[in-house]
């Protein structure tokens, strides 16, 4: 069955949406006539992303904000709502990660990842909440398999993403009565993204070995995640809430994928 989704007039706000997986998500909605806002720290990234998204001919807004700073998140939400009205689809995907042994990780090194991934996701959700369309809004957090499975050298990201998973579930409970669904996507290694470069496949050989450990035999593509995001934003997923959904070719069944060579 071919399903053609159309997000004409729908307001889609993507935090961390200026590069990589989250930009891929934003692009899927922009291609299908959504009104898309992307948010991140760096003006250059915001400018490049808005230029890319605008090529699809729809309405696009780019805003600079740091998810660690609630005042800038609130301002970004206000700017987006002033332009496009209540938020139909909220994506929280800003994240930071690097490989480091816990014994060498400073308090700030641990804290910065928790601040971006976990506390940032809370700020985004909490500050967008009054402006979410109800009933009908869909909140999509971008988590990672590390939230559920331990991975050496990533104690910071494992802790932060485990927190994101629980924030997702708890707010699905609290916001369900408003008609707001809250879910998370847990991607496997996706294409030529920053996460892949930093964590999984720093050399072609490492990439080949990582691919061989995935049942479907390949890394994901940006559209694999974008397609799931669109499904979660659509009425086809109208009874799905509080779910942490892997999109990883089956790879998260194999925890060794996340172990360093
Ligand atoms: N190993 C150990 N510690 C590290 C580190 C590494 N590779 N990279 C950063 N840190 C530590 C720093 O030493 C610092 O701690 P300190 O003050 O005790 O020295 C702390 O983390 C903060 O680093 P800083 O560079 O000031 O943070 P930032 O706010 O400029 O950047 C990061 C945040 C570190 C997460 C940065 O990697 C980033 O911006 N990432 C976004 C992109 C990304 O990670 N994408 C992949 C997503 S899966
Ligand atoms: P990425 O390209 O580095 O994307 C991160 C985005 O977040 C960028 O747009 C970045 O832009 C923004 N950002 C970072 N810190 C921010 C902050 N403090 N405030 C606001 N924006 C911030 O990484 P990616 O690999 O595509 O990963 C995207 C998401 O997918 C993350 O949540 C990651 O954990 C998850 N994930 C990725 C993979 C993978 O294979 N790549 C696998 C599993 C899960 P600025 O630098 O301009 O701020």
What is the strand arrangement across the widest sheet? 3-2-1-4-5-6-7
Q: SSE order, as H and E?
A: EHEHEHEHEHEHHHE
Separation of the first and last Cα atoms: 41 Å
Q: Helix amount, in percent?
A: 40-55%
Q: Specify the biggest β-sheet.
A: 7 strands, parallel
Radius of gyration: 17 Å
Cofactors, ions, other ligands = coenzyme A, NADP nicotinamide-adenine-dinucleotide phosphate
**Overall pLDDT level:** 95
The poorly predicted ranges are none
Describe the global form.
Answer: globular
How large a portion of the residues is in β-strands, by DSSP E? 5-15%
Helix count? 8
Number of strands: 7
Quickly give the structural class: alpha/beta
Question: Which helices and strands, and how do they pair?
Answer:
Blueprint: E1 11-15, H1 20-31, E2 35-40, H2 43-54, E3 60-64, H3 70-84, E4 89-92, H4 107-128, E5 138-142, H5 155-175, E6 181-187, H6 194-200, H7 204-212, H8 222-233, E7 244-247
Parallel strand pairs: 1-2, 1-4, 2-3, 4-5, 5-6, 6-7
Helix pairs in contact: 1-2, 1-8, 3-4, 4-5
């Amino acid at each position: 069955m071919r399903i053609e989704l159309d997000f004409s007039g729908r307001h889609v706000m993507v935090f961390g949406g200026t590069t990589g997986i989250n930009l891929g998500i934003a692009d899927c909605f922009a291609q299908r006539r959504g009104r898309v806002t992307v948010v991140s720290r760096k003006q250059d990234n915001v400018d490049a992303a808005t230029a890319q998204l605008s090529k699809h001919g729809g309405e696009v807004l780019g805003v600079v904000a740091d998810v660690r700073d609630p005042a800038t998140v609130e301002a970004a939400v206000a700017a987006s709502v002033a332009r496009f009205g209540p938020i139909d689809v909220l994506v929280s995907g800003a994240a930071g990660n690097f490989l480091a042994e816990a014994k060498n990780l400073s308090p700030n090194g641990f804290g910065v990842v928790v601040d971006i991934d976990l506390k940032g996701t809370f700020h985004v959700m909490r500050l967008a909440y009054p402006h979410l369309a109800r009933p009908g809004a869909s909140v999509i957090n971008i988590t990672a398999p590390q939230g559920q499975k331990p991975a050496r050298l990533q104690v910071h990201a494992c802790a932060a993403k485990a927190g994101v998973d629980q924030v997702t579930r708890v707010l699905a409970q609290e916001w369900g009565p408003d008609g707001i669904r809250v879910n998370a996507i847990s991607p496997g290694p996706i294409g030529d993204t920053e996460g892949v470069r930093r964590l999984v496949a720093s050399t072609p050989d490492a990439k080949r070995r990582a691919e061989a450990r995935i049942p479907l035999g390949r890394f994901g593509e940006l559209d694999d995640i974008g397609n799931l995001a669109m499904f979660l934003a659509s009425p086809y997923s109208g009874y799905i809430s509080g779910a942490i959904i892997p999109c990883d070719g089956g790879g998260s069944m194999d925890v060794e994928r996340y172990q360093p060579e």
